[in-house]
Each structure stands twice: as structure tokens, then as C-alpha cells.
């Protein structure tokens, strides 16, 4: 389910340390040890955060010799952007209703932006 | 999917979720004066006509749109009711500061600031800013479909740091 996935993404990003890690990983891949350095926390603690990010699909880890660098999965952000469009649409619908109310207040015969249902055109 | 492309209005809402503070900002232009927009936000009969969402019947239960006043309304469809309430902290000439709580999450409260920028020629820009008490709360609200837009902020953040 897309919505379940997004809930996990949002839950994962609700934590400021994990948001920092995502920001760091957006610059380049990094190992758990490298991620632990700036926070002064244990590798175990960072591993826990990475597990949450991995479960949400935001981060993947590949094996590379002795290292397992963490990699940010940028396409998850695309998914979030699509999801956000649903909410933008709701706000847009609300403000188009407000357009109609404002048009009536001006005493015009017709709303200036007659709304058309064009679901198929999207 | 019926996405934003189905809107024919020349005025599109712009949404920004701040990645550093739990704030959502929206702007939207209207062919109206600030005074008309203010009336559409403070007159309960007018407000009920547009606050939505689509297909929901709005019942105003309590309304005193003055500084120190309060409001309460219910949105209903198919026998289901969702209640919302808050206080008008300040109702100025071109600015409204109010609180917003969804009855289903009584511990959550957003501080909403709306202001209207006169662009001239009968055009006004609405700014709406919503501050909640944590990122978690913001994302919960977003996930429940009540408010607008967090992914974009993170996506922007990611794009920004990628350029560093």
C-alpha cells in the first residue's frame, strides 16, 4: 500500500537526527561509522536510525569490501512529491470555492474562473 | 488520478513545508480586495461556503470573529461528522491570527496566521502560515489529510544539499 509506505516515510523523517542523516546522505553515501561521528553517539544507536530509514525505503545499504555504505534512495522523495500533490489539490479546490464566493460578493453574473471537471485531461 | 492539472484557474496555490521548523506556508492570489477576502474569512455564512472540503456540509456551531473571540464548526458527509474549533487571537484589518484544533486530536493545536497583501488592480495575495508543536504532529496532520504539504520541503532540502 502506497499510504502505508508514506506513513513509514513520514514517521522516519519525524525524528530530527534521522532528518540530519538524510541531509548528510543527500551529499554522499556514508558508512554507519561516518554517520555516527558528528553526533557523538554509538554506532549501535546510528544503526537503529538507519534501520528505520531502510524500512521506510529511504536508505539502502550495499556490501562493498569491508564496508556497507548507506545510500539515499532519492526516488522516495519523488513519491512524496506526488503525494503532496493530493494535498495541494485540496487546497486549490478550497480556494477555487473561495473564488466563487468572492465573485458573488462582487455581484458578478458568473465566476471569473468557471470550474470545469476535466479529470481525464490530467 | 485526478491531479492538480485538472484545475483551470490561473491562480494556483503554492505550498511550502519548512524543513527546519514545523511550519506550513501557503500563498494564493485572488481577484479581490483585501477587505473582500477578510469578509470571506470572517463572515460565517460566506466562510461555510468555501472552507470545504468538496462534498462536505459545513455547520457553523460557534462564531465570534473578533480579537479574543472563538469559532467552532463541523464538516459532515454521509452521517459522519468532523469537528474543528479554535480562538481568534487577533482579527485585524488585513490579518487574522487564530488557533486551530481538530476535535479528533484534541491535544494538537496549530497557530495560524493569515494576511492579505494588496497587489493593486483588485488583486490580493493571501498568505497562510500554520505552525504546529512538532514535526511529528505536522506529519500526522498531513498523513490524515487535514493539512497541506510536507514532502516538498524535504524534497527541496534534498535537492538543495545535493547542490552543495
Query: Which value, in Å, is the CA radius of gyration of chain B?
Result: 17 Å
Number of helices of chain A: 5
Mean pLDDT of chain B: 80
Give the N-terminus to C-terminus distance of chain A in angstroms: 23 Å
CATH fourth-tier homologous superfamily of chain B? START domain
What's the CATH class of the largest domain in chain A, please? Mainly Alpha
Q: What name does the CATH topology of chain B carry?
A: Alpha-D-Glucose-1,6-Bisphosphate, Chain A, domain 4
Q: What kind of sheet is the major sheet of chain B?
A: 8 strands, antiparallel
What's the alpha carbon Rg of chain A, rounded to whole Å? 22 Å
Large-scale geometry of chain B: globular
Describe the structure.
The complex is a heterodimer of chains A (122) and B (164). Chain A is mostly helical. Chain A has 2 domains: 2-73, Winged helix-like DNA-binding domain superfamily/Winged helix DNA-binding domain (Arc Repressor Mutant, subunit A); 76-112. Helix content of chain A is 60%, strand content 5%. Chain A contains 5 helices and 2 strands. Chain A has helices at 2-13, 16-27, 32-36, 43-55, 75-105, and strands at 59-61, 70-72. A two-stranded antiparallel ribbon of chain A has the order 1-2. Chain B has helices at 34-42, 44-50, 135-143, 151-162; strands spanning 14-17, 23-30, 57-63, 69-77, 80-91, 95-102, 110-120, 123-131. Chain B has 4 helices and 8 strands, in the order ββααββββββαα. The termini of chain B are far apart. Chain B has one domain (11-162): 2-Layer Sandwich (Alpha-D-Glucose-1,6-Bisphosphate, Chain A, domain 4), CATH 3.30.530.20. An 8-stranded antiparallel β-sheet of chain B has the order 1-2-8-7-6-5-4-3. Chain B is α+β, with helices and mostly antiparallel strands and 164 residues long. Chains A and B meet through helix 1, helix 2 and helix 5 of A and strand 2, helix 1, helix 2, helix 3 and helix 4 of B.
Amino acid at each position: 500500500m502506497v499510504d502505508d509506505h508514506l506513513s513509514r516515510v513520514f514517521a522516519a523523517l519525524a525524528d530530527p537526527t534521522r532528518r540530519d542523516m538524510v541531509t548528510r546522505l543527500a551529499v554522499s553515501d556514508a558508512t554507519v561509522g561516518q554517520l555516527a561521528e558528528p553526533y557523538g553517539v554509538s554506532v549501535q544507536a546510528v544503526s537503529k536510525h538507519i534501520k528505520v530509514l531502510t524500512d521506510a525505503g529511504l536508505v539502502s545499504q550495499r556490501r562493498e569490501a569491508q564496508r556497507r555504505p548507506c545510500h539515499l534512495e532519492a526516488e522516495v522523495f519523488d513519491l512524496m512529491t506526488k503525494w503532496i500533490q493530493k494535498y495541494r489539490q485540496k487546497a486549490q479546490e478550497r480556494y477555487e470555492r473561495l473564488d466563487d464566493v468572492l465573485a458573488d460578493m462582487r455581484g458578478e453574473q458568473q465566476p471569473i474562473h468557471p470550474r470545469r471537471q476535466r479529470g481525464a485531461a490530467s | 488520478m485526478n491531479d492538480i492539472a485538472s484545475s483551470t484557474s490561473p491562480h494556483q496555490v503554492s505550498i511550502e513545508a519548512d524543513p527546519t521548523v514545523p511550519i506550513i506556508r501557503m500563498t494564493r492570489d485572488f481577484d479581490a480586495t483585501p477587505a473582500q477576502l477578510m469578509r470571506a474569512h470572517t463572515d460565517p455564512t460566506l466562510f461555510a461556503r468555501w472552507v470545504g472540503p468538496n462534498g462536505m456540509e459545513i455547520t457553523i456551531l460557534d462564531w465570534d470573529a473578533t480579537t479574543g473571540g472563538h469559532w467552532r464548526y463541523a464538516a459532515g458527509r454521509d452521517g459522519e461528522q468532523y469537528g474543528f474549533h479554535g480562538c481568534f487571537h487577533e482579527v485585524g484589518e488585513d490579518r487574522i491570527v487564530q488557533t486551530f484544533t481538530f476535535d479528533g486530536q484534541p491535544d494538537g493545536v496549530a497557530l495560524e496566521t493569515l494576511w492579505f497583501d494588496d497587489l493593486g488592480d483588485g488583486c490580493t495575495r493571501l498568505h497562510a502560515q500554520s505552525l504546529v508543536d512538532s514535526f511529528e504532529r505536522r506529519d500526522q496532520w498531513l498523513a490524515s489529510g487535514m493539512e497541506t504539504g510536507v514532502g516538498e520541503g524535504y524534497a527541496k532540502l534534498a535537492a538543495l544539499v545535493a547542490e552543495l
